[in-house]
Amino acid sequence: MKAVVVHGAGDVRIDERPRPEPARDEVLLAMEWGGICGSDISYWKKGASGTAALAHPLVLGHEVAGRIAALGAEVTGLSEGQPVTVHPARPEGGDLLPERLAGRTNLHPRVRYFGSAALTPHTDGGFSEFRTVPAGQVRPLPDGVDTEAGALAEPLAVALHAVGRVRDLRGRTVLVNGAGPIGSLVVAAAKYRGARTVIAADLSTSSLSVARRMGADAVVSVSGGEELPQDVDVVFEASGAPAALGPVLRATARGGTLVQVGNLPGTAEPSVLGDLVTREITWIGSYRFVDEIDDALVALRDGLDVSPVISHRFPLDQAELALAVAADPSSSSSKVMLRLATATPA
Asked: Which of 35, 75, 243, 244 could form a disulfide with 71 if both were Cys (CB 3.0 to 4.6 A apart)?
């Protein structure tokens, strides 16, 4: 089978690997769609994502969906041909979480995540024609949700987790700073959770266009000289740009809440943070998700349309080009999708 494998910085290849066979508690998936994430780009460009550095080749991809091709002997409740997506996280080891973290498995000290080099040996992702998956990580797609939309359940879960870090958005005004794929999905998630008004801000006019189609009531073109609104109840910072923190904190209402969704650098960067104290802002981090992928599938079933976030589609054999387009600000890309199935279904 073919797989998209990163061997080091700037070195991604389409490798031939043996087709796997499912263990007794696994299913074999025939993969159909995968979405390119910032971490995939980082592994390709830098050989690392955050503090996770490549020690050996890694199959990329954690936003994936496909169909069950075979079942392990002990698997029940699933069937061959069934369209599914994957919860990409599996906590490893017997460490018990402290009481303050009860239920927050996304903060487990050791998590195996599809397409991640955080642990050694690394955890291969799903950018391949086939992938075996523990049955407990498989999530059937609801009727009416195809596998392309199903591959976006994972980033939608990230957005729903971020929105869920605030107790109740119903009737509130929300600002989303950064309208890339995650930011635009946060826009949709906030509207889905009942926000009255959602404003999206970005440097890119094409990203703002996506945010509009994902439900933003208003947009702010930062590159066009527009300023962020003031005194916003709840702000989601989805750009991960340290330079944005000062203006974003100033936009947050006194006593308001700022949810940090975009990954900030792990190195020292200048930022203006004074308003955090003088405005008594509650600044909350948001990391991946727990089981919100199930909520994402319900939202998709209920009609939440994620298709506007998709800007490009490439076949698996053009994975490097797809990564380059996703990484290039001048491409006006949003979510770039890989068609993982290389054979036309009978």
From this structure: 75
String of b and e for 75-85 (b: at least 16 CB within 10 Å)? beeeeeebbbb
Note whether 102 and 223 are same-domain residues: no
Is there a domain that residue 344 lies in? no
Tens-digit pLDDT profile for residues 30-59: 999 999 999 999 999 999 998 899 999 999
Q: Provide DSSP, 94-150.
A: SPPPPGGGTT-GGG-SSEEETTB-SSSS-B--S-BSEEEEEGGGEEEPPTT--HHHH
Residue 56 pairs with which residues in a beta bridge? none
* Number of helical (H) and strand (E) elements in the chain, helices listed first: 9, 20
Q: Report percent pLDDT > 90 for the chain.
A: 94
> Which amino acid is present at 173?
T
* Gap between the Cα atoms of 314 and 37, Å rounded: 14
Could you tell me where the beta strands, DSSP code E, fall in 157-289? 173-177, 197-202, 218-221, 232-237, 252-260, 282-285
Q: Is residue 8 part of a domain?
A: yes
Distance CA 70, CA 119 (A): 28
Backbone angles phi, psi at 129, to 5 degrees: -70, -30
- In single-letter form, the type of residue at position 29 comes to L
Tell me how far apart the alpha carbons of residues 12 and 282 are, in angstroms, rounded to a whole number. 41
pLDDT digits (tens, 9 = 90+) for 281-340: 999 999 999 999 999 999 999 999 999 999 999 999 999 999 999 999 999 999 999 999
Q: Checking DSSP bridges between strand 173-177 and strand 232-237, what pairing results, if any?
A: parallel
CA distance 88 to 123: 10
Residues 31, 97 within the same domain: yes
Q: What domain range is 251 assigned to?
A: 166-285
How far, in Å, CA of 215 to CA of 184, rounded?
Answer: 8
